[in-house]
Amino acid sequence: MTEEKIYTDYFYDEADFDKNHFRYKNLHIPDGIEAQPLAVPPVLKPDKEEGNDVWFTIESMEGETPFLPGSKTKTWGYNAPFLGQTMVLKTGQHVHVTLKNSLKELTTYHWHGMEVPGPYIDGSCHAPVYPGEEKEIEFTVEQPAALTWLHAHPCPSTAAQVWMGLAMGVVITDDHEAELPIPKAYGKDEFPIVLQDRVFHEDNQFDYRADYDPMGVFGDTPLINGVIKPYIDVTTQKVRLLFLGGTNRREWRLHFDNDLVMTQIAGDDSFLAHPVKMTKLLVGPGERLQVIVDFSDYKEGDVVNLYTDDFKLIEFRIHHFEKDDSVLPDTLFTPEDPVVADDAVVRKVTMDDHDKINGKQYSMQRIDMKAEVNHAEYWDVTNTNSKSHGMLHPFHIHGAHFLVVSRNGQTPNPNEIGVYKDTIEVAPQETVRLKVIFPKEGLFMYHCHIIEHEDAGMMANILIVDPTKPEPHYDLMDMETLTKAFAEEKGIPESEVFMPGMCTEGYMDHCHDDAHTSASHH
């Protein structure tokens, strides 16, 4: 039997990494922080269950979180002071959700990676829930096991609200996953790892406006599930880690002590067709990657560290464990690979500068593309940034999954083959060909997931229609209405609403000079 290949690089050109760009912030641990157990978000309890139907309430709320010694930090979360509880859904379930906004400003609830109708259920900019308001949505889960997530997506304040804490994991399970011989005891041998960073200002508070950078906001303090210096007590030989790139801008280049092997088993929206063994793993903003780590070469009392670059993120403290001889099958998942019609148009999508798609800034009411539901297409997505000044742009599509066909005409990265994805890193001067399919009708967005970039206008709308039905009409939100709402909620004049970017629809009062002057240095 041939020895399995172990990949030992990040699959991307080091020159494109965020650490090589201006205004990159190195991570540090503030003084006075002791190591503490990784917080494992509790599983969100349903309000009720009846047969195949399940009801939940998701409340956006203000809270306080003791990240640092001294004052607690004012934060936002879902059913929690910061981040949220983990929502667990099963394929086939009919899900009813009450979206409750207890914040003092409007927000939206975007199901990133979930295949639900758009735009109102998908929760994009066009689906605001106002302060004190509750909205009911429902959908059926019709996709395979995956880690998806929920985050705020109000234009153009997505980045600011995610920075405050509005993000949580949504885990989909199915019968196939239940049969796989993989760790799945949540909080014991299976851990969600939400990778984020923040800056703490005076009195331990966040100040997004002070940190704002149109190129993307870096924090200098790591927050892993909301914990600054976490450790995990390892009590089983094998551990499954569900990584979520929850940052506004930062990429995570993960590796263990002694190049301990990680076996990737899943990507954004499904398991991989075949497991991939690696010692290095890049997780970009918006991406989810699941790995299994085998600690069989370690003994009780050992400590194994997980790093990003050379910075220690998490300590794994090895305790006594039973021997685990389980063998991962060679085939984990068989993705559907629909045929693209010979006469299908190949979509050309360019990500330009830090704020445009196909040369245009986002406009909320403009339909940029139209396509048919359940109709496979090729999309050629190009990052037009120059190699000398460019950066990796994580490209995300709402309401769809895709297969990666090629990178610059060559074979995709090994961990991109045979897996459903919805977010992919595209390097400067690179074209990635995707095979895209939208299983639901509606209006959806596609954009860069460096959140400041989407807020600045690197985003567009696609209308997905069923050609056998009359074309639906959607009341699409406009920037003027949103700006007036934010001004009212904050009790300030519209001219003072901080809404960087998206200076479109002729509504130009909110194009702040600071956004443009800082952008011009690039």
TrEMBL record:
Q: Which residues form the Plastocyanin-like domain?
A: 67-175, 349-464
Give the highest taxon in the source lineage. Bacteria
InterPro entries per the UniProt record, alphabetical: Cu-oxidase-like_N (IPR011707), Cu-oxidase_C (IPR011706), Cu-oxidase_fam (IPR045087), Cu_oxidase_CS (IPR033138), Cu_oxidase_Cu_BS (IPR002355), Cupredoxin (IPR008972)
**CDD domains from the UniProt entry:** CuRO_2_CueO_FtsP
PROSITE patterns linked: MULTICOPPER_OXIDASE1, MULTICOPPER_OXIDASE2
Q: Which residues form the signal peptide?
A: none
Record keywords, A-Z: Metal-binding, Oxidoreductase
An annotated Gene Ontology molecular function: copper ion binding
Family, similarity comment: Belongs to the multicopper oxidase family.
The protein in question is named Multicopper oxidase
Source lineage:
Bacteria, Bacillati, Bacillota, Bacilli, Lactobacillales
